[in-house]
Each structure stands twice: as structure tokens, then as C-alpha cells.
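Let's practice the habit of predicting before peeking. Look at the sequence and jot down your guess about where helices and strands might fall. Then scroll down.
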Amino acid sequence: MRRYDLPIIDAVTVVLASLAGLLLGAVITGVVVTRRSRGTGVDDGTPAVGARPRKREPMPAEIVLELLPTATVLVDVNDNVRLANASARSLGIVQARSISVPELRQLVRAARLSGKPQSVEIGLDDGGFPRRVLTVGAQAHLLADGDVALVVDDLTEARRVDAVRRDFVANVGHEIKTPVGALTLLAEAALDARDDPEAVHRFVTRMQREAGRLSRLVQELLDLSRLQGGEPLPDTTEVSVDAVLDEAIDRARLVAEVKRIELVRGGDPGLVVTGSESQLVTALSNLLDNAVAYSPAGTRVAVGVHQRPGAVEVAVTDEGIGIEPSDQDRIFERFYRVDPARSRETGGTGLGLAIVKHIVNNHGGEVTVWSRPGAGSTFTIRLPIAPDAERDVAPAGQQLAVQIEKAGGS
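Done guessing? Here is the structure:
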């Protein structure tokens, strides 16, 4: 697992988690004491030599522990796992009879050495695909017999909602003031030039452009906040990748025609993913819009879709200005612009790629970029293929023939 250190749990969370941990510790202690009083110790389901196999009925405390949504683990003095409920196993923090996360092992040892409750907040990334990144808060409590009760809460959703609220206020304050200020100045200039129809027309035209920019900015801020919110995929269904490509290319066609840019499409047909069709169309449209906006007239933008083991890859390649290596790690940040002057010309808000990243992450996928200055860029979206939709890919000669849409009828 890859892990990332995160800030320590706030005071209120610590207090609440401490109370929950003490309660869970009491339940665990009751289970262990009852087992020991019955002489069973740790029941691994293996009968003693010469004994008749028997099925031990779970105790009420064990049933309660298993049903708790909070991950709970009991660790003995040798750092072996004595008990682990279903939530702990689903988080992947327990493997066989060991705690698999080094930070949690250290937390258990710190609690044993200090004799005091210890807490930490960490990030868990299993490194697999579909990717699952979690934020968890953990507490370790030393029990009277030397065992340590480890309580782990999944804080991912709570932290995401907090980030949405904080970032939305900060982003609105920072970004909206520019078009609002421009509208104010242009309105004053139009009033001062009311006797000059030509000047009024020029100022009003610029006001209209700034108002459109402001509208796009507000809408994208709302979209980004919604994507980070509690229900990022409200209408999850099986989605045809061909349908997503059709809609996204259709949206980009008009601007491409104006710049005489070819839209080229090819790859494997009939692929299916699970998720929200509208969100996936938005993500691909944003990539196509960027590719067209940052490509010279008369060039080509290609969209390719291919099946990979357990995944579907959609790549958007342009012949544009490219991106410097120093900028490639930051282009998915909110409001980050590689070329601010060019972004103003194209009306970009700096939120398009951030929206792409959140949509893809919410679908359990990942988005990557390859680029070289002066040689164009390739953005690749990788999504989990729908269950039961994976199939053998036809040989290259039998795949969907490349379709070329020549802008402007050329």
C-alpha cells in the first residue's frame, strides 16, 4: 500500500473517537475474557487432537463487534491480531494475523509503550485499479491485560465535504473578483461614453464577453463542488463508450470547424463502463475543448479508445503547443493555467482539467498526460471496464476503421 501522511485529527474528533474507542475496548475485553473463561483462547476453528469437531456459537459481544461500521482490531503483546471485524478486513488493514499498515503498527506499539491512547490520521492507497484512496483516523488503547484495541474510522467523506466548503469559498473570492471588477469598470466607461454610440457598442460587447466568462466560472465552480460532494455518481448505469465519444465530438465540432481542425476517431468499438454518462461526456468534452483551443489551425485532434485488461482507455491527442515538464504535475490543480494570457484569449477558467480529474477519480479511474513542448499532448483517461463486459479484443485489422471528420467540409 502507498500511504500519505495527513494532518492530525482535530480535537472534537479525538474526543468522540476516544469515547467510541473506550466503548469498543470494553466490548473486545468482554469477548476475550469470556473466551478465556471458557478455555477457548483464540478460536481459529481447528479442533484439538482427538477431539470431536464442534461448532462454537458466537457470543453476543462478538456479533455486536462484527456488525459495527467502525473497523476494530485486537492486537496481543506479540503484535498478532487476535480479533478483527468485517470493517477492518474490508479496509485492508489486516492480513492473516498481522496489521498490514506500518503506521498502524507503530501506533499500536506507541500505545503499549506509553500506556496512553494514541491517535493519528493517515491516507491509504492500495495502489490497485480501480484506485481507492481513503482518509482514516485511528486510535489505539492499551487494555488491562496488555492487549491493544485499535479503532479505525473511515473519514474520507467527511474530509471531502470539509474541503469542498473551504475551497469553494476561497476559489470564489479569488477568481470571481476579476470579471466582476471588469464588468464594473466597463459599465462606468459605457455610461461616460453614452454620447458615442461606437464606444458604447465596444464597451457593451466586452461586458457581454466578461458576463459569459463569469457565467462559465460560476457553473464550473458549482460542477466541481458537486463532484466533490456527497453523491458524485447519482445516476450510475452501464455506459456505452461509443455514445460518450459521439456526444463529446459533436460538442467540439463547431469550434473545430472554425479553426479547420480535423477530429479523428478510432479504436475498439462496443466497450462499456459503469458510471454517469453525463459526467463522462463532460470530462471528454473538456479534454477535446482544450485540445482544439491550444492547437494551431489546420492541425488534427485524435480520439482513440482501446480495451486493456480490466480497463478502457480513452486518449485525446493534439498537435498543439505542448506542456513544459515543470507544468505537467500541476495542470490538474484548480485555476492553474500554463499560459494565463492564452487562457484569457480562449475564455478558459482554469477549472476544466480539475473537473476531468474529479470525474475520473469518482469513477475509480485515473487520468494521465504525456506532452512535449512544440509536439502536442496526449491525455489518457483509464476507467474500469463494466462487469461482464470484458471480451477478447479483435486483431488490429478487424478493429473499427478510423473515422475522419474533416472540419469545414474539406
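How did you do? Confidence is low (pLDDT under 50) at residues 1-17, 39-49, 394-410.
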